[in-house]
Design goal:
The chain has about 475 residues and is α+β, with helices and mostly antiparallel strands. Helix content is about 30%, strand content about 20%. It has 13 helices and 20 strands. The protein binds flavin-adenine dinucleotide.
Length: about 475
């Protein structure tokens, strides 16, 4: 790295420890730090820590026991779980190594959270190139799931902005991977679900921003056709676009929702909006009635009507725009002690209207609905990753409380729609997809398998390889 004289680089390194400690304190701590976000499935694992990137991999003495890196557990299902075996907690790898504003390249350890990159970077005008809907994810986790954000139509996935990383394998070797050095491992590790080795550090390219603010515009729309029209129009001029959809609306209201679009703001107003603070924390697992049909219908209708029929424009802090759910600590507990399942699919462009319509009809017809129902049109920028989730088309994400057989049957019906439309499900959100659906949706899985580290495994991998039923 170059640029030792630049103020930001010096600033980052000098204030690194102080600011990181503060940022970590702000990070909500889950009651059980080695669960996934959906709290299903449950897994029992031994945990080892990777304290320093120079240390050897902390492998169990039993050579038959597998390991899996663990980031911050913000995956919903079992890609970050390794039932009956070992997790390597990568969060102690929390150091910023260097930043060069001339190239906008940041090198840091893989356990650094996006929240920490934002805390350090935004005051100096730097922002992650792609961000998911929570900032409490590690750099390693963002690479291993090749996450996407509201700007997929402009920036593609996170993996497109990863210049290089170091992979620590179970044979003790360290491989620096980039598009030109170990390119096979580079492609397999981006979206590689933690199976190719432990990422110790990575280099990403940040994007410049003038302010911490987003010029946000919101509008409610009346049906699915309106969503498609708004997406097409907004993707031309707005870097970030997404929609919330009322998953209980039926008939002529099917697919109604709220469209949200925004660009990074250029100037700071005299009285800039403040960053939101964590105001609310769910203190315990809520009873199932709290998220039943009646409260959900009321909530959805009220939320829909609280938005205007003409574009409402305002400047908001980036945290309100990108991370509204981070404002409610432990919000996953509203689904109760049995946990919940997120269902995120992508339907290719040509089948998107019909496929999404049918899924929404089935969900509304089952009367279950979903608090969180997000629609987003993906662009066509390819990812370097072998198993990256996005396809040109439309993605829909829905949350369902785990009500056992009833939920499973509904989701099996949705699988059939996705299958017919040539779509696929997102491993980062998944806890139940069938091996056949995974292998059809990700035809390159054999290539990842060939480069997998033989000591690395996960509950997800065993399931989608048919090793578990
Ligand atoms: C509220 C919320 C909103 C979300 N919104 C989005 C969204 O908009 N878009 C999106 O794409 N995702 C989204 N997600 C999912 C989340 O971004 C991903 O699951 C992310 O990968 C989680 O990162 P993590 O650090 O918590 O990793 P974990 O969940 O702990 O692990 C994820 C994977 O990364 C691997 N891994 C972790 N660290 C390393 C390492 N150092 N080396 C190698 N492998 C490693 C693990 O083995 C596992 O396979 C959202 C999640 C939540 C809770």
């Amino acid at each position: 790295m170059v640029g030792t004289a630049c103020p930001l680089r010096v600033g980052l390194i000098k204030i690194n420890r102080l600011v990181l400690i503060q940022a970590l304190r702000e990070t909500p701590v889950s009651p059980d730090p080695y669960r996934s976000w959906g709290r299903y499935p449950q897994a029992r694992q031994r945990v080892r820590f990777q304290y320093r990137r120079q240390d050897p991999l902390p492998l169990p003495a039993d050579e038959t026991e597998s390991v899996l890196p663990f980031g911050n557990g913000r995956s919903y299902g079992d890609v970050c779980l390794n039932d009956g075996a070992t997790l390597i907690d990568a969060r102690p790898l929390d150091r910023i190594i260097a930043f060069d504003p001339a190239t906008s390249v940041l090198r840091c350890e893989a356990g650094v959270l996006l929240a920490e990159i934002l805390t350090l970077g935004v005051p100096h005008g730097w922002f992650p190139p792609v961000t998911p809907g929570t900032r409490f994810v590690t750099l390693g986790g963002a690479i291993a799931n090749d996450v996407h954000g509201k700007n997929h139509h402009r920036a593609g996935t996170f993996g497109r902005h990863v210049r290089a990383f170091e992979l620590l394998r179970s044979d003790g070797s360290r491989r620096v991977c980039s598009p030109t050095e170990n390119p096979g491992l580079y492609r397999a590790t981006i979206g590689g679900l933690g199976l190719t080795g432990l990422i110790t550090w990575a280099e990403i390219r940040l994007r410049a921003v003038a302010t911490p603010l987003i010029s946000q515009e919101t509008l409610r729309f009346e049906d699915l056709d309106a969503f498609f029209a708004l997406s097409e129009e907004s993707d031309q001029d707005y870097e970030h676009t997404v929609a919330w959809v009322d998953s209980l609306a039926v008939g002529k209201n099917l697919g109604r929702g709220v469209f949200i679009r925004g660009n990074h703001a250029q100037g700071i107003p005299a009285d800039p909006p403040k960053p939101p603070r964590v105001r609310l924390r769910i203190p315990c697992d809520l009873p199932p009635a709290a998220i039943g049909h009646a409260p959900l219908k009321l909530f959805n209708a009220a939320f829909y009507r609280s938005h205007p029929t003409r574009w409402q424009k305002k400047r908001v802090h980036y945290a309100s725009f990108f991370y509204p759910l981070d404002g409610i600590g432990d919000w996953n507990r509203i689904y109760g002690s049995r946990g919940f399942l997120q269902y995120q699919c992508v339907i290719p462009e040509a089948q998107a209207r019909e496929g999404i319509r049918e899924i929404l009809e089935r969900v509304a017809g089952a009367g279950t609905g979903s608090f969180l129902a997000v629609l987003k049109r993906f662009g066509d920028l390819p990812s370097p990753g072998l198993l990256s989730f996005p396809l040109p088309g439309v993605t829909l994400a829905l949350d369902f409380p785990n009500r056992g057989r009833k939920t499973w049957d509904l989701l099996a019906g949705l699988d059939a729609v996705v299958r017919r439309a040539g779509g696929r499900l997102y491993p980062a959100k998944d806890a139940r997809m069938a091996a056949a659906d995974f292998q059809r949706g990700y035809p390159d899985w054999h290539r990842l398998e060939a480069l997998r580290d033989p000591r690395f495994d996960s509950g997800f991998r065993r399931r989608v390889h048919g090793a578990e039923t």
